[in-house]
Design a protein that fits this description.
single chain, Glutamine Phosphoribosylpyrophosphate, subunit 1, domain 1, Rossmann fold, 2 domains, seven-stranded antiparallel β-sheet
Length: 562
């Protein structure tokens, strides 16, 4: 994942960028750095700065990429199997945009067709327009800051600049001379909305300040689901007639509809893992600067609590990581008081699931990295670094989750050894897609299948506004590439079309540990996992013991109180 920084300066010189800020951009892309400055007119300049974490193409591509038509900053991965793997995805995008020759409909069409996690800033020299966006799911970070001197777009900023996260719901075109921002949806090339920059920032700021329980969307009441009572009845019958969770799963898989769904999800997820492991140089941090050298060190790590989502990813990753390379399972724990210990719930389940992986994948070297963080170290880095990376998210929950991921992604274990991997697999998105939260069970209890369907849709609608950009900022600070197989477009498109009872089944007869994420548990069971399939969902902040149960997660963290 690369780092990008673009400043549109209205006074001739930069008023925002500083060495500390640019260092955070470089942290994201330690392989090479470049910058460019272009005069829009006598009063306005554009400064573009890019750092690169080389992942695609036969050689590194320095950015920003510039030609007579435009300048491109690209942060992300394009997972399109029709593209030439020998050419950097950055260069392919630049070629496509250059061939548009300033035609805005064609430029929008190129951006709409991109598949994968990304953030883009593209300056069209001919039209003097600045295009920018995050991918439609919002898997990467792009922040925006505006004052009287500058307009800034960057992967990361800091707490001193009151910025917003660019919403992933639109593609944006800024007419620099007119100070007019045009918004395009991901489906049409005509303008959906127009605002001044100032108006747009106010709208977005208001939206992003809303607490989760006030973050709502309009639902299409004409698309009510007609439920197939037969399969619901059959699942309920199996659940009430069997006492063993594994017996329930075994009998459910005998249903043709369920088995077909399990196989299709497995195929899509496996394809997603495969492309995310193959599209990389297969070099660790130590070997990446040695083009001719082979690498048998760890190139892939998994953020590993031992839960369902990450254990499935580990099992599938074993198929596609070279057998002579170990896979690091990175497990983080916090010691928040003197009498506490590091045998937190996620450490215990992590070790249990490690043993199951060892039995299933006997030829693989699994390295279980125990990341132990004392309270003093946590406080130090929250104040100096993590606060800036989490921002503009600012609650106690944001800081707790961001801190857990920052230390995990650092990958320094209890033996003071750093993981050399450059790719990190995450299980993000599985709970939203397959109904893993308590609120899904509550929605079903209160309002039945329609209520559950709406809650799942609400989760999906707001996924880009919640934690994905924050997690991207904290993980990428260590020069590692987060890849999220559950949020592959083909997989999400398939799952979103499923009836809710083919995602989860949170009835009283199917309690936590089976009814939540039922379909994903059946995927794991069908893959041969038997221990992890019945583990209940546990939030990272509680599993790692970073959370203080006396504090309210929605309150503002002291790190952000000035």
């Amino acid at each position: 994942m690369c780092g990008i920084f673009c400043e549109l300066s209205y006074c001739g010189t930069s008023k925002v960028k500083n060495e500390e800020m640019l260092q955070r951009i470089r942290n994201r892309g330690p392989d090479c750095v470049h910058s460019s400055c272009v005069a829009v007119d006598k009063d306005i300049n554009i400064f573009l700065y890019g750092s690169v974490l080389w992942m695609q193409g036969a050689t590194q591509t320095v950015q920003p990429v510039e030609n007579d038509v435009g300048i491109l900053l690209f942060n992300g991965d394009i997972f399109d199997e029709t593209w030439d793997t020998g050419i950097s995805d950055t260069l392919v995008i630049m070629d496509k945009l250059s061939n548009c020759y300033s035609c805005e409909q064609e430029i929008i069409s190129v951006l709409q067709a991109l598949k994968g996690p990304f953030s883009i800033v593209y300056y069209d020299k001919l039209g003097k327009n600045l295009y920018f966006c995050r991918d439609r799911i919002g898997r990467t970070s792009l922040l925006c800051y505006k004052d009287e001197y500058s307009f800034v777009l960057a992967s990361v900023l800091d707490r001193k600049h009151k910025c917003i996260e660019v919403p992933a719901t639109y593609i944006y075109k800024l007419n620099i001379g007119a100070n007019k921002l045009s918004l395009y949806t991901w489906k049409q090339t005509k303008i959906a909305e127009e605002h001044s920059i100032e108006e747009w920032i106010q709208i977005v700021q208001k939206q992003q300040d809303l607490p989760d329980d006030e973050f709502t969307f309009e639902f299409d009441l004409n698309s009510e689901i007609h439920y197939e009572d037969e399969i619901i009845t059959q699942i309920q019958s199996i659940a009430s007639s069997q006492t063993s969770k594994l017996s329930i799963m075994q009998e459910l898989l005998e249903n043709n509809i369920i088995m077909r769904t399990v196989k299709e999800i497995t195929e899509l997820l496996e394809r997603s893992v495969k492309i995310r492991l193959h599209k990389q140089p297969q070099k660790c941090k130590m070997c990446i600067q040695e083009p001719q050298a082979s690498c048998n060190h760890c190139t892939v790590g998994i953020l590993f609590s031992g839960g369902l989502d990450c254990t499935i990813l580990a099992l599938l990753a074993d198929k596609y990581v070279p057998k002579d390379q170990p896979i690091d399972l990175i497990n983080v724990a916090f010691k928040m008081s003197d009498n506490a210990h590091y045998d937190v719930p996620d450490r215990i389940t992590g070790k249990q699931s490690l043993e199951e992986l060892k039995q299933k994948c006997k030829s693989r070297q699994w390295v279980f990295r125990e990341i132990n963080v004392p309270k003093e170290k946590l406080n130090q880095y929250q104040a100096s670094t993590i606060g800036d990376l989490v921002y503009p998210r600012y609650t106690i929950l944001d800081e707790s989750l961001g801190s857990a991921l920052w230390f995990a992604a650092m990958g320094e274990d209890d033996k003071d050894i750093l993981t050399p991997c450059r790719v990190l697999l995450l299980g993000s998105g599985a709970d939203e897609l397959f109904g893993g939260y308590v609120r899904h069970r509550n929605a079903f209890k209160r309002h039945g299948w329609d209520g559950l369907s709406r809650e799942l849709l609400l989760d999906w609608k707001r996924i880009s506004f919640r934690n994905l950009a924050r997690d991207n900022r904290v993980i990428c600070d260590h020069g590692r590439q987060p890849r999220i197989p559950y949020l592959d477009e083909e997989l999400t498109d398939y799952v979103l079309k499923l009836k809710p009872y083919l995602k989860c089944f949170p009835s009283e007869n199917l309690p936590c540990g089976i009814g939540d994420k039922l379909m994903l548990r059946l995927v794991a069971f069908n893959l041969g996992l038997t221990e992890v399939v019945t583990l209940p969902k546990r939030a990272l902040q509680f599993g790692s013991r970073i959370a203080n149960k006396k504090e309210k997660g929605s309150d503002i963290s002291k790190t952000f109180i000035i």
